């Protein structure tokens, strides 16, 4: 870790998906303690430019109004899920952020997290993943993003 980051005293371990499981934050905190790093958490999701993306499920399309009622059945129709904005819990200003995950394939969440961290004043942003699949145009997107480096542990 020292050879990757240099002086790690100003680094923070970032947990991007702590809502995925109840133990996720505890695992991230334990990892941060072993590395003697602080921890910050990113909550929320990036807003999609298009809300009617096909998600592969055979479900009716979303409606745009919460007051939509099916005309003949008189029951409420589906309401689109509101995504909370990305929020950072912890001070990242002037610090190096290290986002750790097991796999990096679809990079959208990493790019959104990195952009938010830069907006909050993070000095550098590293992504560390055990498995770097980087499908499609992920390498180009990372190159054009706020992420300084993607690496694997060890």
UniProtKB/TrEMBL annotation:
InterPro entries attached to this UniProt entry: PRTase-like, Rib-P_diPkinase
Entry's Gene Ontology BP terms: 5-phosphoribose 1-diphosphate biosynthetic process; purine nucleotide biosynthetic process
Family under the similarity heading: Belongs to the ribose-phosphate pyrophosphokinase family.
Gene Ontology terms for molecular function: ATP binding; magnesium ion binding; ribose phosphate diphosphokinase activity
Domain of life: Eukaryota
Function: Seems to play a negative regulatory role in 5-phosphoribose 1-diphosphate synthesis.
GO annotation, cellular component aspect: cytoplasm; ribose phosphate diphosphokinase complex
Biological classification of the source: Eukaryota, Metazoa, Chordata, Craniata, Vertebrata
One Pfam family here: Pribosyl_synth
Name of the protein in question: Phosphoribosyl pyrophosphate synthase-associated protein 2
Source organism of this protein record: Eschrichtius robustus (California gray whale)
């Amino acid at each position: 870790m020292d050879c990757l980051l240099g002086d790690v005293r100003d680094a923070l371990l970032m947990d991007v998906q702590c809502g995925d499981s109840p133990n996720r934050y505890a695992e991230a905190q334990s990892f941060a303690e072993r590395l003697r790093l602080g921890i910050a958490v990113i909550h929320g999701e990036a807003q999609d430019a298009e809300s009617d993306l096909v998600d592969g499920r055979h479900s009716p399309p979303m409606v745009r109004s919460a007051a939509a009622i099916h005309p003949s059945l008189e029951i409420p129709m589906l309401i689109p899920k509101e995504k909370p904005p990305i929020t950072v819990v912890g001070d990242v200003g002037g610090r190096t952020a290290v986002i750790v995950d097991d796999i990096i394939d679809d990079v959208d969440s990493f790019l959104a997290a990195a952009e938010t961290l830069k907006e909050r004043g993070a000095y550098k942003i590293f992504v560390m993943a055990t498995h770097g699949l980087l499908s499609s145009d992920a390498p180009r997107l990372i190159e054009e993003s706020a992420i300084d480096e993607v690496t694997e542990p060890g």
